[in-house]
Amino acid sequence: MDSDRRRDSRSWDWDSPQCRARLDEIFFREQDYIQAGSPEHKEFWAFFDRFQRFKTKRDMAGPGASRGEDSGRTGSGKVDLGLPKDYDARYRINVSVCSRDIEERLGKSEHRSRQRSSGPGSQEVSDCRLALLHFLDFSQRQSFGKLAKLRREQKNLPIFQYRDRLVELVRRHPVVVVAGDTGCGKSTQVPQYLLSAGFTQVACTQPRRIACISLAKRVSFESLNQYGSKVGYQIRFETTRTTATKLLFLTEGLLLRQIQQDRTLAQYQVVIVDEVHERHLHCDFLLGVLRSLLADRPDLRLILMSATINIKLFSNYFSSAPVLQVPGRLFPIQVIYQPIPPEEQPSRSEKMDPRPYLRILQGIDQRYPPEERGDLLLFLSGVAEISTIQEACQIYATHTRRWIVLPLHSTLSLVQQDKVFDIAPPGVRKCIISTNIAETSVTIDGVRFVVDSGKVKEMSFDPKAKMQRLQEFWISRASSEQRKGRAGRTGPGVCYRLYAESDYDAFAPYPVPEIHRVALDSLILQMKSMSLGDPLSFVFIDPPPTASIQTAVTYLKDQGALDNRSELTSIGSLLAQLPVDVVIGKMLVLGSLFNLVEPVLTVAAALSVQSPFLRSSQHNPDCATARQPLHSNQGDPFTLLNTFNAWVEVKGERGGGSRKWCRRRGLEEQRLYEMVNLRRQFKDLLKSHSLLESEDSAPSGGDRGQRRERLTERRKLHQLKRDHEQQEGSKRKVLRLEEGQDGEFSSGSDTEETGRKKKDKEGSGQNMDIQEVKFKLRHNVSRLQEAVSISQDLSSRQQALLKLLLCRGLYPQLALPDEHNTTRKDSEQVFHTKNKQGVVIHPTSVFASDPEVLHVPEDDTGEMGPDRKDSSRHQLLAFVTLLETNRPYLSNCVRVPALQALLLVANSVDTNADCTRLVVDGWLELELREPEEALKVLSTALSLRAEWERLLLAQLGQSSAQGVSRKVMEKLSEGLVRFLLYTEVTYSLRRLAAFQTQNLYVGPQPDSELSRTEAPDLSLLFPGAEAKPDPIKGGLRVTSFFTYNCLADSKDLYSECLRTFWTCPNCGLYMPLTPLERMHHEASCRPAGEQQPDEEPESVKSSSSSASSLTRVYHCDVCNEDLNLTSTEILKHKRQHMYTAK
Amino acid sequence: MEQTSESPQKTFTCQLCGLCSPFTYYGQKPPNTRAIVLLEECFVTKDPFSPDKEKFLVLGSTCSLCSKCVCVGSDCSLFYTKRFCMSCVNKHLDQFPRQIQAELAKKKQSSKAAVS
Ligand SMILES: [Zn+2]
Ligand SMILES: [Zn+2]
Description:
The structure holds two protein chains of two kinds.
Chain A: H1 2-11, H2 17-27, H3 39-60, E1 95-97, H4 100-108, H5 122-156, H6 163-172, E2 175-180, H7 186-196, E3 202-206, H8 209-222, E4 231-234, E5 247-251, H9 252-261, E6 270-273, H10 281-293, E7 301-306, H11 311-317, E8 323-326, E9 333-337, H12 355-367, E10 375-379, H13 383-400, E11 403-408, H14 414-418, E12 429-434, E13 447-452, E14 455-462, E15 467-474, H15 477-485, E16 493-497, H16 501-506, H17 521-529, H18 546-558, H19 570-575, H20 582-593, H21 597-608, H22 621-627, H23 636-654, H24 658-664, H25 669-688, H26 704-727, H27 739-742, H28 747-762, H29 770-778, H30 781-791, H31 796-810, E17 814-817, E18 831-832, E19 840-841, H32 846-849, E20 862-865, E21 868-870, E22 875-884, E23 888-897, H33 898-905, E24 909-911, E25 917-920, E26 924-928, H34 931-955, H35 966-982, E27 987-991, H36 994-998, H37 1009-1021, E28 1028-1029, E29 1036-1037, E30 1042-1044, E31 1060-1063, E32 1070-1073, H38 1075-1084, H39 1097-1102, E33 1111-1116, E34 1121-1126, H40 1127-1141
Parallel strand pairs in A: 2-7, 2-8, 3-5, 3-6, 4-5, 6-7, 9-16, 10-12, 10-13, 11-12, 13-16, 15-22, 19-23, 24-30
Antiparallel strand pairs in A: 14-15, 17-18, 17-22, 20-21, 22-23, 24-25, 25-26, 26-27, 28-29, 29-30, 31-32, 33-34
Helix pairs in contact in A: 3-5, 4-5, 9-10, 17-18, 20-21, 20-31, 21-23, 21-25, 23-30, 26-29, 31-35, 33-34, 34-35, 34-38, 37-40
Chain B: E1 11-13, E2 20-22, E3 25-27, E4 36-38, E5 42-46, E6 56-62, E7 69-71, E8 77-80, E9 82-85, H1 86-91, H2 98-115
Antiparallel strand pairs in B: 1-2, 3-5, 5-6, 6-7, 8-9
The structure holds zinc ion (2 copies).
């Protein structure tokens, strides 16, 4: 044997890759359990080296150790187990490997000595096989060890004791409430208990998307399913759901949408609603919907899971459903009240005083030795507070070298947010300064100290000002306990409360549920589309204030989503299906009508996600310079559009290089990925509602070779994605002590650094970013580029039209620049909305840095008096949000020409007799100099709007005519653009003062002959509109939005003095007409070529054959006769009666 | 999700420690193991710790003496040419080689130390 070895060693070298490759051909072939090149294969050879070393060491220790002389069968009359005499470790392995290749080489090797020199001999094959057996045994032990550990952990969870009780309750009751605190294991275990008890088709909702993914992963792992088969998740853009899925984690919003499609939720047997105590809007609503659904589904099982907060509320809501209380697993936490002394209390104007916080850091350093690990989590109310305290703590940290200070809030880049999970080096603690995001959404292990400021900033909705407000409040006792609990997750902890115990006692018991704080527009819209009846009588778990429901209904009416009877309109039912704000949904629908779908899709997506522009890089001059070319002074949506387009361009050219491109510009790339996904979803939605033609079905062509190439690439991408999923979250990196210092302040270099480290972590070969992989899997880059190129370099005409669409979508969210802005500093530009005066532009908006574009050009103005500025260039801002923090801010603004935009989108336009004075929506007053011009503008606007409305309804499939022909649509957009760009009318624009709005209207007039005879005339010209005296304003209501001659300064409607001779440019009619008559005529008398009512071919056919297409049947009430007349003839006919009546 | 009820999942339960886990195969030749053969009839599942690939994981088997169902964890059973549950091993400890006896004695001691 020894000689054998010596001889072999001349030609056989275990370390030589060639020799190993020879064995690979025997043991690790394509068809084998382990294949050459796989990770296991690499592991095997590493194991082999260790194994050989071990063997050598043992051999040197001398033989004989394995002699089993003493395994004596010393009688005692027991059973003989028949064990071999000599001990061999091989006997402890329960696997064997044999294939013909191996057997041949082992058996016949003696006779094939010629192979000796070139290939492995029997000795080598046998050595290798033995090593393989040990390797297999080793990996079995390893995996089983993990499984055993997992099962041990599951058993140790507090909820494990209640397993049978839970299943029993669910079997017997339709609704069960499970109440358990952090760490009891309910979210991961309850679904598993149900599955193993035989329940199937289980849905489990989560308030957060990220939780859906991580829970699906965890549960699938724990139940030993292959990921993605029986346990899946479904969120906005992603799903792993298949027909085999038995347990699905999904968001509350998504389940609601499923109920919209599947009224009784027949697809599920069990619905678990997790985290109900968080009281999110969607969750409260979902509970209400489920509650009413239970009557139709007696077999459905509903489980509510909650922290031990206000459990009675939930139980009572479901007719005293049984409650299963599970204790949490928290270590004891010491509470220390340290109220802030008065001299250190933050005053309203000043920054926070950091001293109370620094004292705690010092105290910890004095009391606890650095080798005792444990991090600190500090809760503050907002971002500004965080940066103040962070700055002070950082100075202390730099000095002591015992702390790494990390901020945590949702506007940080994800890379920055992710740092809180990394580990501090020995002797150093993390000091995480967070908003309430760390109270429930983000869970950080290893926290031992919690500092609670007791404050939170919460969004509330002010229905009066139509404004969101971010205000600071004291937290509730429930939140306070939740914050405290964060200190006791991994060991005993300490919670410092920066308020007095008496304050704590005075806190509200629970936080105000979201349904009481926010605008209910989307909720009410969804309720309407689910036919849930009157929202005021819906049984909510905690009904929202009646006023907020009414405000929402009014708002939806303003938006055109509900009609006067509060029923869903066609637009409304479409909007209800779009998972976005009503205003954004409106933009999408409007955009689908014109050739502006691509840019509208992008803008709608951009306005639905958080801004990609990182706040932290705002003050970085390099970022600002790099961003400059992306800016558009048309408005923020255009800047976002440019940014997205440029990013897609970079994606197309450089792929993964986009990450660096984003970093340079201070952009959070994640947001752009969200945009591209959302954009795609919007597109699909529009297609599924036939608002958008499907693209050519030919899958982007290409020859066979190209297709194959694409297929290979996709396969590679899928592999990369799987690899990533495997190694994800495996290792946490150790933070550098300097980490916090560069954090916020020099993000450019810092993120560069992070990028490099991440690359190291991912390993050498895989430089590819997982987001990039997912992006490539989901989107066809070249097609995206095509789509984007359409919206690049928009012509000024397209731009004007796009602005109009945005404005109509955003209406009534309009703001008027203050007339004195020209004399103010850039930072002090003031604006007014209908309901709120004195708002300012958010510093992130392009108009904050470039307010001049909103000013009325000086040379253009004609001063008509001290407070009247005439110009043809007045502009308004349409905005996405009005949010009050320390001041009321407008964000995401776009500027539009005032007169044109108002006439085209406003819900209420009132005029005086000669239409030189317009009041829009009861708050904006426009005075035009020339009655002639005023009439022309108004009548153009009216006919454009009528046509727009008609086409929109046709597009939505509401009119008999199917779809909208391209020609008709182009004509309309041409008309709109001409109106927007070339209306050169001089006017003044101002906000009405409160006293002016009081006596704005003439009010109802005594019935006059004239107005009665006028009525049928109007209905003819504006089909569908019943023109009649307005019962409140007075004057004549011509269309739903236009009331003529109702303003208090109006003169008599038909007073002869208003009649002037006029020649119609189209038909040559020449007669004295009042303004209203002229408008009627103009609206009905189009140039001969246009008059063809081609949109209604049927009605033409059905009308009498003798009638020309220009005439209609008109019933004259005075003659009591049906007449066949053209519009102009009708007008003439009626004028006869009018004169005779006088 | 399909509504059809599949046959209930087969579950392996260790009669000594209670470890519970669904298994997908029982026998000596789990699927996709190629040249590998098990030397005893085992309860096998897909290895959840090497996702994506088709690797197997042996959960346990029956004691060759008392036919108890035991997991492969070292606290519950031992394989030495055959599977023995720990109670049978202890009963017949003298017939096992010295190495194994020593190993078990050592383990007993360390677990005692850990408890006390
Ligand atoms: Zn066991
Ligand atoms: Zn036994």
